[in-house]
Design goal:
The chain has 178 residues and is α+β, with helices and mostly antiparallel strands. Helix content is 29%, strand content 14%. A five-stranded antiparallel β-sheet has the order 1-2-3-5-4.
């Protein structure tokens, strides 16, 4: 049996679980995406902010709570226009997504004493986008002690606050430009 130490490599902290049987799924490539009748990110702005979990609206984009959050206060920034990827967005949409992200970070620090953030976009279903058809940026607040083994062992994420409660707190703290 060969050892990894016999190869030219820079070790990392990960263990590897080799799963060659998964090649059948990769080669087949016939996974069917679920049929979505209505885009939730196109429907949300048509709804009442409280019901849609919207915390702020801009001219080209808006901010709402993720319905399936990784952590309390997990926000999404979406353009109103139905575009799938970052390179399809206009300069105005990109600028406002960036501006709304900055405000969201400040509000989350103020309301939730956030220690850090994971910010990013998954572009395309294969890249992990749950809703690949509509561009959205994740803002996931992080705290020094928010990691535990519950998601790994139980396949469950513990979210300590209710969505409505968090939405109200963030929306009330959002600076208004009236």
């Amino acid at each position: 049996m060969e050892s990894a130490e016999d190869f030219a490599a820079v070790p990392d902290a990960f263990q590897r679980l080799w799963t060659p049987y998964r090649m059948a799924y990769i080669k087949d490539n016939t996974e069917q995406a679920p049929v979505e009748h209505n885009c939730p990110f196109c429907e949300a702005p048509k709804m009442d902010d409280e019901k849609a979990l919207i915390v702020a609206r801009g001219t080209h984009a808006y901010v709402l709570l993720n319905l399936y959050p990784y952590n309390s206060g997990h926000l999404l920034v979406c353009p109103y226009r139905h575009v799938a990827t970052y390179d399809e967005a206009t300069a105005e949409e990109i600028a406002e997504i960036g501006s709304l992200t900055q405000v969201a970070m400040r509000v989350l620090r103020q309301t939730a004493s956030v220690d850090g953030f994971n910010i990013g976009m998954n572009q395309g279903r294969l890249a992990g986008a749950g809703i690949a058809e509509h561009l959205h940026q994740h803002i996931v607040p992080r705290w020094a002690l928010d990691s535990n083994f519950f998601p790994i062992i139980a396949g469950t994420k513990s979210v300590p606050r209710l969505l409505g409660e968090v939405r109200t707190e963030i929306a009330n703290a959002w600076p208004h430009t009236d």
